[in-house]
Automatic annotation (TrEMBL):
Protein name listed in UniProt: Aldo/keto reductase
Coiled coil: none
Cellular component per GO, a single term: cytosol
Domain NADP-dependent oxidoreductase, residue spans: 14-308
Domain of life: Bacteria
Annotated CDD domains: AKR_AKR9C1 (cd19081)
InterPro entries xref list: AKR, AKR_Detox_Biosynth, Aldo/ket_reductase_CS, NAD(P)_OxRdtase_dom_sf, NADP_OxRdtase_dom
Gene Ontology MF terms: oxidoreductase activity
Length: 313
């Protein structure tokens, strides 16, 4: 377990992504995934109000609803650290104060809870000054409905402005960032965001840790993508440079008797992230995720993967 900075929230260093709940996983399968995750020692689940608005016939809120029903059915709300996000739901867009306050109330209802443990601004709203955003999220923390604040998809400049404003004005300082980061998506995080994370002492919970499933090694040809819900996203990496990374991953995995999925997530942990986010559409996928914190890659293995993924750095 690891403690999120400036909080009393202890989390297993693998953050289960909830984007599949009610989308690629129906309600019963989502329950099975959550059961497998918590039975293996997991306790940290990430969702968003917008999940899964992109699904056919969906309007958003599906993931939060399924998660809330599971929390109630299992009676484990106090044992699970719940993260959700605001700002991307089409009917609740942006980070204006009134919109965020109302969006939080709606998320709380769907989740069946009286507080969100980690509440993210899902993406920056440049129409709202950072100082106003920081004041709104501070208000939510002071209300007791939010325990800690996180930021996702912000520019380095606006991230810095939020941290410095919060510290100067004695507002709630964000405790986490959620950037995109993986073996085939290194540049933006390593060059621009990692230095800020270190400077301000925040947790890092990267999304797309498996590059939409590409780093599981199951996508090697265009035919492998056919009929897959995330085939389009994974297909963006299906080129010589991407496949070279997969080859390196598979080599390390075979040598260690592990899954490529496990190695890809272990590489993120070796790079110093707090807990990578990864999702599972079926319970049998969960063990490979949960094995990552226990797989300590050697310096040579990290160097091999760094070298293979250098075109993405």
């Amino acid at each position: 377990m690891t403690t999120i900075p400036r909080t009393d929230l202890d989390v297993f260093p693998l953050n289960l992504g909830g984007n599949t709940f009610g989308w690629t996983s129906d309600r019963s399968t989502s329950f099975a995934v959550l059961d497998a995750f918590t039975e293996a020692g997991g306790n940290f689940v990430d969702t968003a109000d917008v999940y899964s608005v992109w699904g056919e016939g969906h309007t958003g809120g599906e993931s939060e609803t399924v998660l809330g029903e599971w929390l109630a059915a299992r009676g484990v709300r106090d044992d699970v650290v719940v993260a959700t996000k605001v700002g991307s739901l089409p009917q609740r867009p942006g980070l204006g104060r009134d919109n965020v306050v109302q969006a939080l109330e709606e998320s709380l209802r769907r989740l069946g809870t009286d507080r969100v443990d980690l509440y993210y601004a899902h993406r920056d709203d440049e129409s709202v000054p950072v100082a106003e955003q920081a004041a709104t999220f501070d208000e939510l923390v002071r209300s007791g409905k939010v325990r800690a604040v996180g930021l996702s998809n912000y520019s380095p400049q606006r991230l810095r402005e939020w941290f410095e404003t919060a510290e100067r004005e004695h507002l709630t300082v964000p405790v986490a960032i959620q950037p995109e980061y993986n073996l085939v998506g290194r540049r933006a995080y390593e060059q621009d965001l990692a230095p800020l994370a270190r400077e301000f002492g925040v947790a890092v919970f990267p999304y797309f840790g498996l590059a939409s499933g590409f780093l599981t090694g199951k996508y090697r040809t265009a035919a492998d993508l056919e009929g897959r819900a995330r085939g389009g996203a994974a297909g963006a990496y299906l080129n010589a440079q991407g496949l070279a990374v997969v080859d390196a991953l598979v080599g390390v995995a075979e040598a260690r008797g592990a899954e490529p999925t496990t190695v890809a997530l272990a590489w993120l942990l070796a790079k110093g992230v707090t807990a990578p986010i990864a999702s599972a559409s079926r319970p049998e996928q969960v063990p490979a995720l949960m094995a990552a914190p226990g797989l300590a890659l050697t310096a040579e293995e990290v160097e091999l993967l760094d070298r293979a993924s250098q075109p993405f750095a």
